[in-house]
Amino acid sequence: MSKIKHLYWRAGFGLSPQEWEERKNWSIAKAVDQLFREAKAAGPLQALNVSSLTKKPTKEQKKMERKYVGRQNTACLVRMANPNESAFMERMSLFWHGHFACSSKLSKLAFNQINTIRKHALGNFRDLVLAVAKDPSMIRYLNNQQNKKNKPNENFARELMELFTIGRGHYTEQDIKEAARAFTGWSSNLSGTFIFRRRQHDFGTKTFMGRTGKFDGDEIIDIILEQRETAQFICTKVYRYFVNEIVDTRIVDQLATQFYQSDYNIEALMRSIFTSDWFYDKKNIGTKIKSPVDLVAGISRSLNIRYDNEQALIFIQKALGQILFNPPNVAGWIGGKAWIDNATMMLRLNLVNYLLYASDVDFRTKSNLKASARNKAMRKLEARVNLAPLQQILSTNNQERTIEELSDFLLQRDPAVDKKLIQQYAQSGTGQDFIKMAIARITSLPEYQLC
Q1: Between 107 and which of 68, 122, 268, 273 could a Cys-Cys bridge form, CB atoms 3.0 to 4.6 Å apart?
Q2: Where are the domains of the chain?
Q3: pTM listed for this prediction
C-alpha cells in the first residue's frame, strides 16, 4: 500500500481526491516538508462567537455557552476535513487535546485553550506544559482555583506527573504534596486570563524529587523535565498514537534519547518519526483503529461532504463516543479497541451509506439516547456528498478497474473480501449510481475502520 497515504492518514486525516491525485507519487521528504510548512503557516484561530465570562451564569447563558462550544467543536471537524487547512496542525492539536485532556464548558476558555495548544503543538514541550499549566480552562477543570497555601489542592500536581509528563512510578505522594504547594495561587479571572494570586501562594521551602528550594510551578516543571523518564513517557505515547499501539521499545528508546537531547523539541521528534524507514513498515500500516473524529473527518475529506446542519457532526460524535472539548475524564480517550463496541459497530460500518443515502436511512445510535432525541437527530443528519472530484480521478468507466481505484484510494490495506463481490454488489447501478454503491460497500468493510 502507498507510503504517502499512510503518512497523510497518520499526520492528518487522509487525502481528498485532488490531494491524492497530486501527491500520490511524491517523495516522503517532499510530503513531510509540505506538512510542516503548512502547519507553521496555520497561525491562531479566529474567535467564533466567544462570550464574556460571568461569575454566576444564568440558565440561558449556560445554554448559550453549550451552543458556542458546539460551534467550536464543529469548526474543528470542518477544518480537519478541509484540504485548504493544515491537516497536520489539526492532527497535532487533536493529539495534544487528548493528552492534556480537559472538558471546557465555557466557550472563551475552550477557544483560548485550543489556540494555546496550536501555538506550541510543534514547539518546545516545556513551553507547552507551562502554557497548559497556566491555561484557565485546565486550572478550572483540575480545581487549581482552589489551590491555596493554607489548603493545597493536589489535583493538578497529581495529573501533571501521572498523565501529562513523567508517568506513574517516578514520583511519590510526597512529591505530589510538595508540587501542589508550588502551584498555589495559580488562578484565572473572569476575562479568562491567567493570574498569579501572591497572597494565596506558598513561598516556603519545598523538597521535590530529591531537590530542596523555594520552588514555584515553573521550577517544578523544570525538575520533572530534567528526568529522562519524562522523555520516555511522552515518546511512548507519541509512538502509540502515531505509529503502533504495540510499542517497539528499542525505537522508543532511540526517540526518547533524541527528544531529551534536543531539549524536548516536538518538531524534531515528529520529523524523525515521519522520515524513518520503520514508520513505513508493513506492520504499522492499516493497523490503527480510526477514532470517531478520524473516521468522520476522513469521510468528509475523501468524499467532499458538506453538512446542511453541522449539529449533525456533534450528534455523530456522541453516538460514536468521542466529543471534542469533552473527553470522558482527565486521562482522555482510551482509543484502540475501546472505540469499537456493540453500540457503535453498525453505525461505524454504515456511516458512509447513511450519508450517501440519508433520505432513505433509519439512523439509529446508542440505546441510551432517548427516542425523541434520536428522531430529532435523524432529521438533522442531512449532508451533501459531492462525488465529482472523486469521479475525476477515476481513469476509466470499466467497473472492475473502478473498484480497484476506489479501493486503492479509500483503504489502507487490501480487503479480505474478493473485490469481485464488491463489483457484484454494485452491478445494478450505472455511472454515479455504481460509484455510490461501490463506495458504500467498500466503506462498510472492516478494513475501512483502520488507518
Answers
A1: 68
A2: 394-449
A3: 0.94
